[in-house]
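Kindly review this protein for my students:
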Amino acid sequence: MTNLPKLLMFSMVDQYVAREYIIPLTFLLKNAFDITVVTYNRYPYDMLDDFLGEKLSFNYLAISDHYFDSIPRVERNKYVKLYGEDIDFAKILIHDVIANDYPLNRDFLYHNSLTFQKLYGFALRIENILRAINPDYIIVQQGSEPISRIIIS
């Protein structure tokens, strides 16, 4: 066990992001932090496996296996019972609402729809990761995508 401060790096990993951001940051910070890279989903093959041979100094885990398709659904009342109304999930979705030309359908308006239940599931999983690792610092790759906004919230 190391006495280094814990750093979590959340990232939607693809080869460009790994090559341009994750690898340089891990090499830069590997002697100063105990680094855990947390990706939003696990691809059919792990993009980072190609780089592990370079003796990168980080732990690796994924929030989900296949993004929204694999995250357990959590009903709104269960989430609220566990954590209260701590995150405005309608606001979290604004990126997708705008990107999809404002399709204000039931999925975006009903706060116990499948979409919201998946977001509650992501929030619970992220909360568990944060509690388990108890990081000193967190880096979030970007801030407009719904999962990034949940992490920031």
Notes: The mean pLDDT is 83.
